[in-house]
Specification:
alpha+beta; Aminopeptidase; globular
Amino acid sequence: MSQRRGCRHRIIRPGWVGAFSLLLYAFVRIITSPFRENDRIDFKKGPVMDEKFLMHLEDAALNAWPAPRQMIFDGWLLRFAEGYTKRANSVNVRFDSRLSLADKIRACEEVYQRVALPVIFRLPDPFTSQALLEALDLAGYQTFDPTFVLGQRIGTHPALPKGVRGVEMNVRDWIALRADLTGISVEHWRVHREILDVIMPERVLLGLCAEGEYVACGMGVVEGDLLGYFSIYVGEDFRRRGYGQVTMAALTNWGLVRGASYGYLQVEGDNQPALAMYQKMGFETCYRYVYSKKKVNGE
């Protein structure tokens, strides 16, 4: 059954339509926020890219794309999702180590071996020490797939084109839509659905409807002042019409009324068209991370 027919579900209204209800929601959201005022970062003049802000951003990004299984090992976060995406199946270095780096690397290898997964380290530039890089090199690792975390201040409600609207969807229907847009069967998205089910910050699953037909999808996740954009995808028949940016505009409207004032996303370094598009939209680089895996013969 095609999910492109009959755009139903709850509508995310753009611009000033329904403004009173949106402002009321935002007011209630802010005064009942579980975050202490001192923990909130003022983005009115743009964030200062210091370690505190970058750690805040890194934490939010990890929370927005969690793994169904994970463990803490001597300050490192080990994540497991049956191999579905590197972000959800990697070692993330969060805090200083008490054990020797060589011993910790070997211990991580043993853990991932038990669940039949390759051990992959995810290494954000601001939080990765030279000592760890050298230890991984000595253990036979090499870096690959550089990825950029981009961000920009958000502060106004972007208007959506006439006849286009964002529609909130439940997990089942959104997965079905994504399968329809990508041409990949619903069964392929099983682990993706499990990840969606364990996201703890507030999230929205969006379908973009144009002239009564679904043309794109995306996910937004709000944590405090941060809005993360994830899983933006435009159907092949509807590309080069600006629907990707419109999907992000609809997500921005959703995030703004929930107290977000800074948006971020992650783009692989070899995706030059996406990097160029986001730069044109005003996004700037916050930091970079790379992955590291064991070298194989011939590499």
